[in-house]
């Protein structure tokens, strides 16, 4: 639905801060932590932030002005005239990666339109630190009613041509608690002064409202200079995005956070941030080894740059635009390649590695750009207790920036030589759902000064890379499981049978998990054999598991001496009794080579091809029944076919003849022509030729299974081979 254009400048009713009151009432009704209200300007049509409450406006600086086609929640809400709900950081990274890369923190968000039936006036967003569930129906009704009511007031004001004025942001002052009366307040000050560690309070904008003498002494700044100024402005060596990131995480997540920072003298201080809806309380103390504060939360060793040189990065918007490709990454290899192609060149890195951990040891998940791969791979399996930057970041979840080899040697003295031939490194923690999933290492071939802007961009990018890596690790684990399952279920070799040659091939799909439900089998019977080929719907572990059950059932019914039509009927009944929602096609063939005949039963499966000894090829379109697992009363009539010595049967799944843009009948005819021309080749060579065109393609939407059977005289040549 398009947006109905509103006035070029939306007027606001006189008589008080209407926008601020409307926003705060919505926050109070839903216990939201923060929010912002945008007004729509029609020329050009952009949303402009009019008022924000609960958080510093700087947090939303990239979205002060939002175009209506932008992929951000407030634009979507107004453009589509609906409530947009984002339940947490994973959903934000998936749906709005450009927001997640700047604010990679655990918070929920709702965005709503401010519009009447005929005109659009703006949009609202609200945030919560965390929620166990979505908004209730009552909360949704309250928010919708508040937005509708505001739109009506704006519409009435528009008719009066009243001017609009942005209102001041609502940054609540820190609440002051303590003992009642002046004496109680004085005693509280004395008590705080006696504490052996530093205490200070910050408002939502980072300004110091109170600091005790211990804090001033540790920070090296008088109380008079601290009070009223932003902490990182009063203490320049705290002006580092790694530390500010902890401040943002505390406010947005409303959970205590901590970090360790190095003073210019080299000794380290620990900072513990306790947030509330009105600001933060900060405890400052001397850091003690190991690098964990008294509350047990991992701390950082990050040292800020000595000189704030101009950033060598491109703009943040350009970097963000490159990260959209991460949403399409499937496996870990894809993530590593995308970081190498899209991100490392942008930030000026010459090499990268992605590290993970398992069983208390470092794992090298992938790397690019190293002239000597062993320089990275030798760290695979290193205990996480080793004092290296890679293990430290995996343990603590905090970034490490090393601007030169000398800094590496000073901070990690056990490193006697440069580990990989590079001269500067950024070790970025990859944290998803509040837990570290890995580390991204960017390497530079010359000493590199990481500026404040550069550290901010790299730290933000790590949040989005973490979501992609988390998904990729899960995908790869499922992929290994599925392939192991399928390899265990398909026959490794085919039995040698008198009077019969056999060969088979299997190619997985290249989309999805490269795993599916195609199967084949060749089962010896008294005086002959039973051949089966089938295709279970789907390309995942469930399909592979059901395929194994179907194959086992067919083998069991064959061993019991059931006729082909009965084997199909009982297998169909089994699938229905299993209660699965998947279906399967199947073709079952009972062969007696010496008799020159075979019996065929089909369940929704493509018809086989028969090549006669004279080279003629026929499609055996025999009668059959529906797919297995659909109709419990279905029958599967059997058809007898001639199988003279020298005859060749080709059993296949539909992936062999189904190609996008190609008619299946034309594809089947082409397969018949290839079979007529090459049918006298040895079966292994013929099998390779029949699937060769599919094997050479870059993409296969479906699995392919082929089973070739050639009748021979009993004293003739006998050979058989598996999938090869």
Write up this protein.
This protein is 33% helix and 24% strand. With 724 residues, the chain is of the alpha+beta class. The chain has a six-stranded antiparallel β-sheet, with helices on both faces. It has a five-stranded antiparallel β-sheet with strand order 8-7-11-10-9. Mean pLDDT is 81; it is low at 1-16, 172-182, 290-320 and 716-720.
Radius of gyration (Å) = 34 Å
- Molecular shape: elongated
Helical proportion? 25-40%
Beta-strand residue fraction: 15-25%
By oligomeric state, this entry counts as single chain
- Decide which structural class fits the backbone: alpha+beta
The neighbouring-strand order within the major sheet is 3-2-1-6-5-4
Tell me how many strands there are: 26
Overall average residue pLDDT? 81
Instruction: Count helical runs.
Output: 20
Distance between the termini: 55 Å
Keywords: ATP-binding, Hydrolase, Kinase, Magnesium, Manganese, Metal-binding, Nucleotide-binding, Phosphoprotein, Protein phosphatase, Transferase
InterPro entries: Bact_Sigma-Reg, GAF, GAF-like_dom_sf, PAS-like_dom_sf, PAS_4, PPM-type-like_dom_sf, PPM-type_phosphatase-like_dom
Pfam families: GAF_2, PAS_4, SpoIIE
Organism: Streptomyces griseoviridis
Q: Could you give the topology of this structure?
A:
Layout: H1 18-30, E1 34-42, E2 45-53, E3 65-67, H2 73-80, E4 84-86, H3 89-95, H4 97-102, E5 108-115, E6 120-128, H5 137-159, H6 181-194, E7 198-203, E8 208-211, H7 213-219, H8 223-226, H9 231-234, H10 241-253, E9 257-262, E10 268-275, E11 279-286, H11 316-322, H12 332-343, E12 351-358, E13 361-368, H13 374-377, H14 389-396, E14 400-402, H15 405-411, E15 424-432, E16 435-444, H16 452-489, E17 500-507, E18 517-525, E19 528-536, H17 541-559, H18 564-578, E20 584-592, E21 597-603, E22 609-611, E23 617-619, E24 638-642, E25 648-652, H19 664-678, H20 683-695, E26 704-711
Antiparallel strand pairs: 1-2, 1-6, 2-3, 4-5, 5-6, 7-8, 7-11, 9-10, 10-11, 12-13, 12-16, 14-15, 15-16, 17-26, 18-19, 19-20, 20-21, 21-24, 22-23, 22-25, 25-26
Helix pairs in contact: 1-5, 12-16, 16-17, 17-18
GO molecular function: ATP binding; kinase activity; metal ion binding; protein serine/threonine phosphatase activity
Pfam families: GAF_2 (PF13185), PAS_4 (PF08448), SpoIIE (PF07228)
Protein name: protein-serine/threonine phosphatase
């Amino acid at each position: 639905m398009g947006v109905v254009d509103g006035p070029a400048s939306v007027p606001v009713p006189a008589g008080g801060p209407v926008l601020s009151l409307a926003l705060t009432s919505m926050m109070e009704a839903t216990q939201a932590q923060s929010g912002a209200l945008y007004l729509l300007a029609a020329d050009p049509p952009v949303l402009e932030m009019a008022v924000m409450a609960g958080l510093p406006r700087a947090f939303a600086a990239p979205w002060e002005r939002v175009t209506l086609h932008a992929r951000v929640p407030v634009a979507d809400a107004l453009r589509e005239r609906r409530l947009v709900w984002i339940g947490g950081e994973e959903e934000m990274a998936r749906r709005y990666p450009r927001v997640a890369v700047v604010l990679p923190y655990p918070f929920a968000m709702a965005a709503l339109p401010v519009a009447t039936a005929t005109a659009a006036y703006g949009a609202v967003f609200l945030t919560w630190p965390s929620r166990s569930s979505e908004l209730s129906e009552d909360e949704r009704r309250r928010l919708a009613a508040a937005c509708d009511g505001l739109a009506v007031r704006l519409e009435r004001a528009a008719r009066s041509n009243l001017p609009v004025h942005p209102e001041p942001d609502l940054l609540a002052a820190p609440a002051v608690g303590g003992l009642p009366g002046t004496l109680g307040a004085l005693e509280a000050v004395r008590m705080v002064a006696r504490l052996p560690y530093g205490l200070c309070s910050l408002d939502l904008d980072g300004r110091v409202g109170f600091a005790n003498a211990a804090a001033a002494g540790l920070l090296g700044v008088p109380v008079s200079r601290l009070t009223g100024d932003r902490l990182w402005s009063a203490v320049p060596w705290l002006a580092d995005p790694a530390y500010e990131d902890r401040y943002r995480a505390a406010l947005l997540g409303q959970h205590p956070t901590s970090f360790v920072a190095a003073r210019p003298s080299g000794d380290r201080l620990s900072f513990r941030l306790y947030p509330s809806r009105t600001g933060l309380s900060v405890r400052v103390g001397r850091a003690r080894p190991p690098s964990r504060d008294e509350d047990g939360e991992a701390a950082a060793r990050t040292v800020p740059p000595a000189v704030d040189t101009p950033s060598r990065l491109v703009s943040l918007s350009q970097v963000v635009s490159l990260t959209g490709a991460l949403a399409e990454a499937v496996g870990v290899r894809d993530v590593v390649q995308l970081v190498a192609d899209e991100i490392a060149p942008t930030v000026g890195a010459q090499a990268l590695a992605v590290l993970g951990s398992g069983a208390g040891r470092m794992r090298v998940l992938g790397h690019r750009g190293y002239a000597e791969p062993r320089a990275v791979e030798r760290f695979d399996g290193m205990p996480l207790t080793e004092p290296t930057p890679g293990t430290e970041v995996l343990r603590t979840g905090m970034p490490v920036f090393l601007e030169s080899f000398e800094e590496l040697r000073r901070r990690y003295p056990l490193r006697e030589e440069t580990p990989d031939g590079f001269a500067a490194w950024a070790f970025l923690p990859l944290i998803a759902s509040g837990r570290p999933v890995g580390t991204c290492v960017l390497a530079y071939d010359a000493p590199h000064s990481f500026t404040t802007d550069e550290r901010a961009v790299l730290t933000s990018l790590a949040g989005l890379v973490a979501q992609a890596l988390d998904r990729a690790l899960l995908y790869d684990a499922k992929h290994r499981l599925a392939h192991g399952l399928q390899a265990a279920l398909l026959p490794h070799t085919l039995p040698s049978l008198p009077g019969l040659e056999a060969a088979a091939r299997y190619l997985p799909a290249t989309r999805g998990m490269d795993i599916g439900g195609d199967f084949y089998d060749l089962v010896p019977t008294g005086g002959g054999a039973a051949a089966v080929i089938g295709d279970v719907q789907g390309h995942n572990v469930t399909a592979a598991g059901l395929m194994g059950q179907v194959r086992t059932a067919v083998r069991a019914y064959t061993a019991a001496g059931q006729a082909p039509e009965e084997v199909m009927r009982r297998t169909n009944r089994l699938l229905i009794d299993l209660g699965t929602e998947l279906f399967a096609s199947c073709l079952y063939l009972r062969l007696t080579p010496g008799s020159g005949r075979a019996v065929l039963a089909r369940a929704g499966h493509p018809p086989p091809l028969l090549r006669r000894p004279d080279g003629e090829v026929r499609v055996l379109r025999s009668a059959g029944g529906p797919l297995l697992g659909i109709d419990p009363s279905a029958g599967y009539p059997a058809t007898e076919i001639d199988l003279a010595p020298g005859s060749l049967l080709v059993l296949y799944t539909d992936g062999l003849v189904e190609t996008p843009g190609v008619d299946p009948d034309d594809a089947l005819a082409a397969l018949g022509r290839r079979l007529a021309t090459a049918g006298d080749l040895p079966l292994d060579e013929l099998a390779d030729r029949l699937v060769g065109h599919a094997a050479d393609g870059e993409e296969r939407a479906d699995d392919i299974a082929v089973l070739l059977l050639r009748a021979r005289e009993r004293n003739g040549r006998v050979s058989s081979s598996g999938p090869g």
